[in-house]
Amino acid sequence: MRTFSRYFTLSTYFHNRHGKRIQKIPLDAGFSCPNRDGTLSSRGCLFCNPLGSGTGQSIANIPLADQYAHWRTRFQQKYKAHAFLAYLQSFSNTYGPLTKLTRVLDALHDLPELEGICLGTRPDCLDQPKLAALAAFPGTENWLDLGLQSSNNQTLERINRGHDAQCFARAARMAGSMGLKICAHVIAGLPGENMDDFLATIGFVNQLPVRGIKIHNLYVCKGSGLVRWWQRGDYRPLDMDEYTQWVVQGLIRLRPDIVIHRINGDPQPGELVAPNWALSKSQIIQKIVRHLEDRDLWQGKLSGKANDRPYWFDRNGGIPDGID
Ligand code: SF4
């Protein structure tokens, strides 16, 4: 059966390229973050929870191979999955000396059924030697998840991000030139931003050698600086209709070859303060899909790079231009 989508999902990308499901396995390698440990700041980004915007599923002090084995067994049973990505999500996984990163990569090297890595970090925690170590990892799918959040430097300052958009652009170009696949993280609904700011961020991403994107709705979580803003009435989260409209407008402007790794945020159990709709993950996705279908819209329709039909989001339709 052929499966069509109006945007380029990660599962479609994996099926088209590898002919199978590839499942991310969350791992905690024990890194920290310069925006948390006092180097840049101890407050963290305004939206960040004390776990470092991480999985909440980390198994501290357990060797990476054991963490991997634990999740691999579960995902084999749950999804019948037999191909995996080691997903280092919590904090900034290239922060610290190169030797620490190479130790972590060595520990992942020979894990069974591993197709590659997906490693999250800040753009200011990268340099040539670290990128070379990542690029040398022997996987077919080596992704670098890079936080941008917004292309507006005033916003980045407002949320205490600790780097600017140009820092992201430099890191993305350097990593892209070394063969790494960049997945940009962006947020809709940041304090002080309107839809035009969000669309400007999408336009900024389009200009860079970015291969994937995670779009998050900003929600207020316990322990974050944003809680106080929300309690004082200085921050109002988007409602679900607004988020749907922002994402749809972003999608139709996004380059059609950029893979959507995520289209909404996913609060960990117990961490959400507001808005409640952030828990309705499947409802949000359905709403976005319905909105696209009702208006005959698809990813890239207004990007200037799309054909007149969204044929490349056919799971069995082969690989679109620009994807190797
Ligand atoms: S860079 Fe990531 S881990 Fe560090 S404070 Fe910001 S969101 Fe949290």
From TrEMBL:
<dbReference type="InterPro" id="IPR039661">
    <property type="entry name" value="ELP3"/>
</dbReference>
<keyword id="KW-0408">Iron</keyword>
<protein>
    <submittedName>
        <fullName>Radical SAM protein</fullName>
    </submittedName>
</protein>
<feature type="domain" description="Radical SAM core">
    <location>
        <begin position="17"/>
        <end position="266"/>
    </location>
</feature>
<keyword id="KW-0411">Iron-sulfur</keyword>
<dbReference type="InterPro" id="IPR006638">
    <property type="entry name" value="Elp3/MiaA/NifB-like_rSAM"/>
</dbReference>
<keyword id="KW-0949">S-adenosyl-L-methionine</keyword>
<dbReference type="InterPro" id="IPR005911">
    <property type="entry name" value="YhcC-like"/>
</dbReference>
<keyword id="KW-0479">Metal-binding</keyword>
<dbReference type="InterPro" id="IPR058240">
    <property type="entry name" value="rSAM_sf"/>
</dbReference>
<dbReference type="Pfam" id="PF16199">
    <property type="entry name" value="Radical_SAM_C"/>
</dbReference>
<dbReference type="InterPro" id="IPR023404">
    <property type="entry name" value="rSAM_horseshoe"/>
</dbReference>
<keyword id="KW-0004">4Fe-4S</keyword>
<dbReference type="InterPro" id="IPR007197">
    <property type="entry name" value="rSAM"/>
</dbReference>
<dbReference type="Pfam" id="PF04055">
    <property type="entry name" value="Radical_SAM"/>
</dbReference>
<dbReference type="GO" id="GO:0051539">
    <property type="term" value="F:4 iron, 4 sulfur cluster binding"/>
</dbReference>
<dbReference type="InterPro" id="IPR032432">
    <property type="entry name" value="Radical_SAM_C"/>
</dbReference>
<dbReference type="GO" id="GO:0003824">
    <property type="term" value="F:catalytic activity"/>
</dbReference>
<dbReference type="GO" id="GO:0046872">
    <property type="term" value="F:metal ion binding"/>
</dbReference>
